[in-house]
Write a structure and sequence with these properties.
The chain is mainly alpha-helical. It is built from four helices and four strands, in the order αααββββα. It has a two-stranded antiparallel sheet. The protein has a two-stranded antiparallel sheet with strand order 3-4.
């Protein structure tokens, strides 16, 4: 009995009650420890395919319990395998999009690889086959579907920038070489100074 209160100890004595409480608390920590080990094993399998790394991190938590769990949270890979793959796909898609953006040969505006014409200056960029009406690449020689010949696109040169000097026409070097040379012209009369040589009488 508890000091005249009329309540007995759960185990019959204080020692037995303390033992029961110790078993409950111990079982609670064992469950937490086992849960931490299972969580670590599952988490590390999602973050690295290396069996050695999976074993080492799981043993760290198994041996050192909660301090080992803290060490694992610090040293584990920051991304899971799925997150790393998604990040790689996003990066490759962004790089492909940047590589496909090209300048227009006429106005210099940005154009994508699948544009048929420049949206700014309406310059035709790609062709459609006259036989099967499929979209063709300007570098192709024939249509790969119907083997029809592909005419070449002629890109007009970009207009000169405002305020830029006009380009001079090219010189015809062959015509200049065949034409007779013009006689040299003199700007003024040539003055000759006469010198007298002394003679002996």
């Amino acid at each position: 009995m508890l000091d005249g209160v009329g309540i007995s100890w759960p185990g019959g004595s204080p020692e037995n009650t303390g033992l029961i409480l110790a078993l409950i608390v111990g079982a609670y920590f064992v469950v937490l420890w086992f849960s931490a080990v299972v969580w670590t094993a599952r988490d590390i399998h999602q973050r690295t395919p290396e069996p050695m790394a999976q074993l080492v991190f799981t043993l760290i938590v198994l041996v050192f319990n909660f301090p080992g769990l803290v060490v694992y949270r610090v040293l584990r890979p920051p991304l899971t395998l799925q997150e790393a793959e998604e990040h790689r796909l996003e990066s490759s898609a962004l790089l492909r999009e940047l590589e496909q953006t090209l300048p227009c040969p006429r106005c210099g505006g940005e154009i994508a690889e699948d544009y048929l014409a420049c949206p700014r200056c309406a310059l035709p960029l790609r062709l459609s086959c006259a036989s099967c009406e499929r979209v063709l690449d300007p570098d192709w020689q024939i249509c790969p579907w119907c083997t029809a010949e592909i005419p070449k696109l002629r890109h007009e040169p970009a207009p000169p920038a405002p305020g830029a000097p006009a380009a001079s026409p090219p010189r015809d070097i062959v015509a200049e070489a065949e034409s007779p040379a013009a006689p040299p012209t003199t700007s003024g009369a040539t003055h000759v100074q006469s010198s007298r040589i002394p003679t002996l009488d």
